[in-house]
Design brief:
Blueprint lengths: L1 H6 L23 E10 L5 H10 L2 E5 L5 E6 L9 H13 L3 E12 L5 E2 L8 H5 L2 H5 L9 E6 L17 E2 L18 H10 L17 E6 L8 E3 H13 L4 E4 L1 E4 L10 H11 L3 E5 L11 E2 L10 E7 L17 E4 L3 H4 L6 E5 L3 E5 L2 H17 L4 H11 L19 H9 L2 E5 L5 E2 L5 E7 L6 E5 L2 E2 L2 H6 L1 E3 L5 E7 L5 E10 L7 E10 L3 E2 L2 E5 L3 E2 L12 H5 L4 E6 L3 E6 L19 E2 L12 E5 L3 E2 L5 E2 L5 E5 L2 E6 L6 E2 L4 E3 L5 E3 H6 L6 E6 L2 E6 L4 E2 L4 E6 L3 E5 L20 E10 L2 E11 L11 E2 L8 E7 L7 E8 L5 E9 L6 E8 L5 E7 L5 E3 L5 E4 L6 E10 L7 E9 L3 E8 L3 E9 L4 E10 L2 E7 L12 E10 L5 E10 L2
Parallel strand pairs: 6-8, 6-10, 7-8, 10-12, 12-14, 14-15, 19-26, 47-50
Antiparallel strand pairs: 1-3, 1-4, 2-3, 4-9, 4-11, 5-17, 11-13, 16-17, 18-20, 20-24, 21-22, 21-25, 23-24, 25-26, 27-34, 28-33, 29-35, 30-31, 30-33, 32-36, 36-45, 37-44, 38-43, 39-40, 39-45, 41-42, 46-47, 46-52, 48-50, 49-50, 49-51, 51-56, 52-55, 53-54, 53-56, 57-58, 58-61, 59-60, 59-62, 62-63
Helix pairs in contact: 6-10, 7-8, 11-12
Length: 978
């Protein structure tokens, strides 16, 4: 029986008796007959599930977790379904191939020992003394906002020692809101007893003390049905864990369990998957290790999840003399041990755990069910102190009392928890918040931020490169949080480029022998702007001494030898030159016309603004500025093109930005785009080429400037949300659509433009659509390729991308514009997945020349002093066959001459060249334009100098070119004998 139970992970633990004689072996009820739990394969639809369920007479019950269902066989509620029939149905469902997991509805049981009413006294709560709570309470008693969920048999909501600590809760077994246990017996009272260990109100003059003295709330989740109290069907547990997630619980106590097949959990089990999903959201789970040590010490579910998760703790039990409790499971995944009682060996009832019971009563119980809530309460205390959920398990392990044993070991894990020792380690903390270890800081005057807890300014010391900061400066910059626990210290220092070390030490205000230190090294290395042109934004604000709300001039940061340009709403560029007299204030760093700045703060221009900058050489940015505060940053936009910058010294996702209308309404970026307030495109300037991404894609990279286009006056609000995202190429095709693209670029002298897109997509629109992307203004010197759409009404203008829907004949009006009017301009193109049936022709509207774009890749023209050139690109179905040269034959004639016959599929200009076998030219025969069909040419057998060629093998090369530039070639050998 046990072997079968281990094989099927869905088998859950057997009833733990409440007397010594009742625990000789686990009970045989492993699952609910006639009930199953399934999770769907990703490709399985609900309709397929319902169809199969109808065929097999199964009722479908959705558990509230995507893809996970509770199936009930016909007759199950009446007890007419056997275990064998249940397992047979499990196999049939597995064979269907629709499910990622199929198993019977497993049952869990309480993991507790005897419970008896008794008069309470704190002095009898030996477990609190063992885990060192009296000393821990001197530091932390628990805080409001921390929630411990207890998945169990419910709780007495009116118990005088619990009523002020309990939240309303939920019965996920009977599916109602009544968590009151169905009776006052020892089994029904299990959940009330567990809740009292965690949170019976302490220091209230009645009853017993809970581990969490105050503040922490307990969420009772009754997952055991009234009809079978003490058992836990898997469907109820799935609902229970999901409820804990929905209620934003911080800790979940599970004093229940059952035999498992191995120490490693089945990752396909929906309950396991759900628990792991909850841990990924920061919820800490604490489970009883199991009470079957003498019955075989087998692995226990869910305790064995501790083997794979840093957010899951499996707790063994010890008696009052710190001995391993005789019943407590001992497995490799055991995390720690805690008081659980051991009267089954000693026969002394006060050797068990005293806590609350239904009906306002108190009593003793024994089991790992009691050790688990000791740890759950300890976790709540540590979370109240500010310990991160992911650090709790290691902290409890590192500070547990090993009592001289080697650790970890199966009986004790890392030892008996010591809450004082754990909280002592974090009761006073000292850390360097910024810079981060090994961080590269790009300002010469970084802000150093320190965080300390449970201390005073006089007990804090800070050194910077070995030099002590005065106590006066520490006190002047010491900002205490409202709860009086955490203090922040911000210092500013001018430091030279290179490596620096900072250290902070704090002593505890209650016990100065407790100290905490943190030391980091970091680099100061100014940002280097590369030679040439770039689009930049400065993320550090360096104020003028006399006017602290205005930036120092750009020369103070960039030196000399640069010039900057900034686009103005009037439709022109303002220029600021470091070496010339032209210093337009609108293009300067200390301009005041654009009120950019953090919410609730004053302007911090140039943060949030972008500038084209020309540099003759690589230039370090020597700023002593500070970054923008981590609050939303406001950048006013005018209808039209706007040059914006990332105001923060870290990357920010474009889609996280918000837009505020002139009426004060705050919208997400996507909502603002849908309401046509702003376009969703974000433009970068990289190596002379514009690229773009469309929300939700796109990243505002630090130190970079960008173009955005507003359709109405509004304010862009950049949210302080760092992202580690890298640059991702813009996706120019519509998702799921079919079609093709053509990318165009142009070069004129030393300038280029390289990312204008036309094409066809089945999901596009023939008029303006979201897939059509306008072209930002150019700055001199420039060359620009634009698609003109004069017929689009309010959307008319120049576009960088124009995708049409129909694959019938389409024409795009192209304009190449440059201020390099004395340089030749080369227009290039690159096709992306263009079908063979599509014919592409470039028409030069000045010369009328037609270029077949399939057989050529570029076109060069001379501007002749004119800055614009118009072209038309025509895409149409290929109605005729492609140009071909066929039927080539060389015939000898009298007088050592030869006739060359060939056929053309279309009219074309033909050139025939005779070469040696190695390809060396011998003579050319120009045929000019020839009609379609059979044509001939003659060769006298002589080279270009009129000398008869010697005997040997020669190649006849025929090349044909249509008026549209389409080309075809054929080569055939000819052997000459003399």
């Amino acid at each position: 029986m046990r072997a079968r139970m281990f094989c099927i992970l869905a088998t859950f633990v057997l009833l733990i008796g409440f007397s010594i004689s009742a625990v000789s072996e686990p009970a045989s009820r492993q699952f609910v007959a006639g009930e199953l739990i399934v999770s769907l394969n990703p490709g399985t639809s609900v309709e397929q599930l319902q169809s199969l369920a109808q065929q097999m007479n199964l009722t479908v019950d959705y558990l509230g977790v995507p893809g996970v269902y509770h199936l009930i066989m016909k007759g199950a509620r009446e007890g007419a379904v056997t275990d064998a029939q249940t397992l047979e149905t499990v196999q049939k469902l597995k064979d269907s191939g629709l499910f990622a997991y199929v198993g019977p509805n497993k049952v869990y049981y309480l993991l507790q020992r005897e419970v008896r009413p008794n008069d309470p006294r704190y002095g009898e709560q030996w477990g609190l003394e063992m885990i060192n709570m009296p000393r821990a309470w001197a530091f932390q008693k628990g805080k409001t906002g921390v929630i411990v969920a207890v998945i169990d048999t419910g709780a007495d909501m009116n118990h005088p020692d619990l009523k002020d600590r309990l939240l309303p809760g939920r019965d996920t077994a009977d599916q109602d809101d009544d968590v009151t246990p169905p009776g006052n017996d020892v089994v029904a009272g299990h959940g009330t007893h567990v809740a009292g260990i965690i949170g019976a109100t302490t220091d209230n003059g009645i009853g017993v003390a809970g581990i969490t003295w105050t503040g922490v709330k307990i969420l009772p989740v009754k997952a055991s049905p009234n009809s079978g109290i003490g058992t836990f069907p898997q469907d109820a547990l799935i609902r229970a864990v999901q409820y804990c997630i929905d209620q934003k619980s911080n800790v979940v106590n599970m004093s229940l369990g059952g035999p498992a097949a191995s120490d490693i959990p089945d990752m396909t089990d929906p309950l396991t998957q759900l628990i792991l999903n909850a841990t990924q959201q920061g919820i800490v789970f604490v489970a009883a290790a199991g009470n079957w040590f003498v019955e075989g010490n087998f692995p226990v579910y869910p305790a064995h999840i501790a083997s794979i998760s840093d957010y899951f703790l499996a707790v063994a039990a010890v008696g009052p003399r710190r001995e391993h409790a005789a019943y407590s499971q001992a497995r490799p995944y055991t995390t720690v041990a805690a008081p659980g009682g051991n009267s089954m060996v000693t026969g002394i009832e006060t050797d068990d755990i005293l806590s609350t019971l239904p009906g306002g009563n108190y009593g003793y119980a024994m089991g790992t069910s009691m050790s688990a809530p000791h740890v759950s309460g300890a976790v709540a205390i540590l979370l109240s102190q500010g310990v991160k959920p992911g650090d709790v398990k290691k902290l409890l392990q590192d500070t547990a009392a090993a009592d001289g044993r080697s650790v970890p070991n199966p009986e004790f894990g890392y030892g008996i928890i010591d809450v004082y020792n754990a909280i002592r380690r974090v009761a006073t903390s000292a850390s360097v918040v910024t810079p981060a270890p090994a961080e590269v800081v790009e300002t010469l005057k970084p802000t150093l931020v320190f965080s300390v807890t449970n201390t005073t300014p006089a007990l804090v010391s800070i050194t910077i490169d070995g030099q002590a900061v005065t106590s006066t400066e520490i006190a002047d910059n010491y900002v205490l949080s409202p709860d009086g626990v955490v203090a922040t210290i911000k210092l500013s220092r001018r430091l030279a480029p290179g490596t620096h070390t900072v250290k902070v030490t704090a002593r505890n205000a209650i016990d100065p022998t407790i100290t905490s230190s943190d030391e980091i090294t970091f680099q100061i290395s100014p940002r280097v702007l590369r030679a040439g042109r770039s689009l930049i934004s400065i993320p550090y604000f360096q104020p003028q001494t006399s006017q602290p709300t205005r930036s120092v001039p750009a020369e103070s940061i960039l030196g000399s030898g640069f010039q900057m340009f900034r686009w103005l709403p009037q439709g022109r560029y303002a220029k600021y030159s470091a070496w010339g007299a032209l210093k337009d204030p609108a293009a300067s760093f200390d301009q005041t016309t654009e009120q950019v700045g953090p919410e609730g703060g004053s302007t911090m221009a140039p943060l949030g603004l972008a500038y084209f900058i020309d540099l003759p050489a690589d230039t370090p940015v020597l700023t002593e500025g500070t970054p923008a505060p981590d609050v939303p940053y406001r950048i006013p936009l005018k209808a039209g093109w706007n040059m914006i910058g990332n105001p923060f010294a870290y990357n920010v996702p474009w889609v996280a930005c918000e837009v505020e209308t002139t009426t004060g309404a705050r919208l997400s970026l996507q909502e603002a785009a849908d309401k046509e307030i702003i376009l969703p495109h974000l433009y970068r300037y990289e190596d002379g080429v514009y690229t773009w991404q469309t929300a939700p894609a796109g990243v505002l990279y630090k130190w970079e400037g960008f173009w955005v286009r507003a359709l109405q006056d509004c304010t862009l609000v950049v949210m302080p949300l760092p992202t580690g995202g890298r640059s991702v190429p813009a996706s120019n095709m519509l998702s799921g659509g079919k079609g093709w693209l053509l990318r165009l670029s142009a070069v004129a002298g030393n300038v280029r433009d390289g990312n204008t897109i036309i094409g066809v997509n089945s999901r596009a629109t023939d008029g303006y659509g979201r897939e059509d992307v306008p072209k930002p203004p150019s700055v001199s010197p420039y060359v620009s390729v634009k698609v003109l759409n004069a017929e689009w009404g309010a959307r008319a203008g120049a576009y960088a991308q124009d995708i049409r829907r129909s694959d019938r004949r389409q024409t795009w009006q192209l304009q190449v514009e440059t201020d390099q009017v004395n340089e030749p301009v080369t227009l290039r193109w690159e096709g992306l997945d263009i079908p063979a049936r599509v014919r592409l022709t470039l028409v030069d509207e000045v010369t009328g020349r037609r270029i077949a774009m399939r057989t050529t890749g570029s076109y060069t023209y001379q501007p002749g002093g004119v800055n614009t050139r118009s072209f038309t690109i025509v895409a149409e179905p290929e109605m005729r066959s492609a140009l071909r040269v066929t039927s080539v034959r060389v015939r000898a004639t009298r007088g050592s001459g030869y006739t060359i016959d060939y056929a053309l599929s279309a009219p074309a200009q033909v050139q025939i060249t005779i070469t040696s076998a190695s390809g060396k030219p011998v003579v050319s025969l120009v045929q000019n334009t020839r009609s379609a069909g059979v044509n001939s040419a003659t060769w006298n057998g002589r080279d270009s100098n009129g000398v008869a060629v010697p005997a040997g093998t020669y190649l006849v090369r025929i090349e044909a070119t249509t008026a549209d530039g389409e080309r075809a070639r054929m080569i055939t050998p000819v052997v000459i004998t003399r």
